[in-house]
Amino acid sequence: MWKLKLSKGEDDVGVTSVNDHIGRQFWEFDPHAGTPEERSQIESMRQEFTRNKSNVKHSSDLLMRFQFASENHIKTNKSQVAEAKGDDEDDEVVVKTLKKALKFFSTLQGEDGSWPADYGGPLFLLPGLIVGLHVMGAKEAVLSIEHTREIRRYLYNHQNDDGGWGLHIEGHSTMFCTALNYVSLRLLGERMDGGEGAMTKARKWILDHGSVTHIPTWGKFWLSVLGVYEWSGNNPLPPEMWLLPYFLPLHPGRMWCHTRMIYLPMSYLYGKRFVGPISSIVLSLRRELYNTLYHQVNWDLSRNQCAKEDLYYPHSIIQDIIWGGLNKIAEPLLMRWPLSKLRKKALNTAMQHIHYEDENTQYICIGPVSKVLNMLCCWVEDPKSTVNKLHLSRVKDYLWIAEDGMKMQGYNGSQLWDAVFAVQAISSTNLEDEYGSMLRKAHSFIKNSQVRENSSGNIQSWYRHITRGGWPFSTPDNGWPVSDCTAEALKTVLMLSQMPYHLVGEAIAPECLYDAVHLLLTLQNDNGGYSSYELMRSYPWLEMINPAETFGDIMIDYQYVECTSAVVQGLTSFMKLYPGHRRKEIEASINKATTFIENMQLPDGSWYGSWGICYTYGTWFGIKGLVAAGKTYETSHCIRKACAFLLSKQLPSGGWGESYTSCMQKIYINIAGNKSHITNTSWALLALIAAQQAKRDRRPLDVAARVLIDHQMENGDFPQQEIIGVFNKNCMISYSSYRNIFPIWALGEYLNCVIGKKCTT
Ligand code: LAN
């Protein structure tokens, strides 16, 4: 049986950690674990998922729940039928719901204080890993038979009825994911006609949609590495970019760190024109994936072809002209003496950056794509290097298993982010007797997750911002602090520092807070807004050369309402408790950030949320930020407009339910059938409560709370509904703890601020 391991590292010799692996989570297969009965229970969860896969795409993290339930000796009850709660008084019902919800939520907390959860969703991540491992000849070393079985299960479970795969579990079929997942299944040993017709259907989808000549650039890249597509059919990714002077706006050091860290190893492999071993499977794929013979493909034409299903962000004409010029003139020169010397130098520089990133992230790397690419580059540089082992040992940090199979996650987890929201949710209930040891454990987890040092050496020459004092999204081993993670964590540890010692343990040292504040102050852009990881280092027009057809807004670190609002909240909390520390700077920063938030509001009163779906998420942050800055419904027309916006989107059922297509189309769209979503409903409820809606008209809040209460399951859990996270406008990602965190938080506020009227000022 599969077992989730938390905060463990000792089995992997040589794997390093800055905090003794606190927060690390990975799954291991133990053939001896579990009774026959337990195994058959798990098997039926899997069967149930597959049976219903066309209707429900999101798994419910049942394997983790099952493990925690048996560790906690709780009988799991999957029933989603809510108990009759109608007879009691309002507050009793809410208290009852919350007590049950908290009790259940406490069983999901790990011993290390984090709430581990599935961070899957995108379907373009596993193929990178499988191609990478295949090329390195390391598939067997990392993926056991059980891994392979579960990966295969996952891939089939998320194949759409038309035979293709979407960019993410709920998306329509795309060439990018159909071709790459088909290739992955073949590399994992599936036959061309395997999967009871599924493979044939997938191949038909590919060929009917123009074949892999129409795969977007990232797909062309992976296929070229594997040897089933020619490098001449790719647009150039010259590593020489890294040798350009920094003052040029298109210097890679100025790009969004994710894009930078993905194009870095890509440019190394491109610059080398690296191709893995040409084996019989590779030769066979060359026949399977095209409508013509492989040697008859017009590679130059395919360079710019892209299936319409994949085209979210079409190339500009300027971009195609640039690529054309580079491809026809610069590349042939750089591949030949004497300019080949420059290429060699550029490759060297790129490789040094790769090693720097690996070492400063304990081989986790900033994200799932760059992780696999860096690993492959290290192997290409020296297949015998010990570094390869270190890389391979960190692959499991990205893998997660649920009843739908084994997936690759969008990050090495969402540990810190979930923990800081969880603490805010739990404390909002004010039900101290129910907290148990939850807050104490989470507190110690958060304290242990702060990044203590800057990255190594002269950070500027590696284009790194300071990191000391920041909090990452996952674990400090990942080492990349995020502005809003830092701010939310700051707010949370400040709040915990005000709670009794016997309840939550020792408060964080003031120096740690000062470091966090310092980092936040250095991260503010001139116009007051906050980006995600770094300052905005270049201009939005750079998007004209965004080569990734599937993702929008990737070229620079834009400024976001979420990040800016979180920082306003973090800094105001800090200022209240430490009024003497850098007060002038903090006040100025809050003022500027507040103005930025106001300016970001859209004419209809909403804010566009970039990391959660979408206008409900953004508007919750918009309102929270303004309220933290001291604005009220009475004094701020922005808050008035925002409330009107939210109320106008409330469904007849009393909830809110925003479709993921909102993010892509940039207009508010309801989930099909006007279904309410507990997470959207919670965000809207939290926003309206913060804007003191209760003073004006309580009814919208009462019905929304009722929706949340009615969704609770018998065991205190809440149902997993549609996918709720997003990135780069077009790809969705799972936040599997939100189903517990947000109903608790919203009902907690509802209990105290609406029913108890304690929060009205
Ligand atoms: C994340 C996850 C966390 C997220 C929040 C902290 C929630 C947000 O408020 C700020 C941005 C951030 C840190 C974020 C940025 C983009 C990430 C890293 C991800 C969504 C997880 C995966 C994604 C990454 C870019 C995936 C790789 C693909 C590309 C298209 C570049």
TrEMBL record:
Stretches assigned to the Squalene cyclase N-terminal domain: 99-402
Keyword list, A-Z: Isomerase, Repeat
Entry annotated with the keyword Repeat: yes
Enzyme Commission code: 5.4.99.-
Residue span, Squalene cyclase C-terminal domain: 414-751
Superkingdom of the organism of origin: Eukaryota
GO terms for biological process, alphabetical: triterpenoid biosynthetic process
A GO molecular function held by the record: intramolecular transferase activity
Family classification: Belongs to the terpene cyclase/mutase family.
Name of protein: Terpene cyclase/mutase family member
Organism the protein comes from: Helianthus annuus
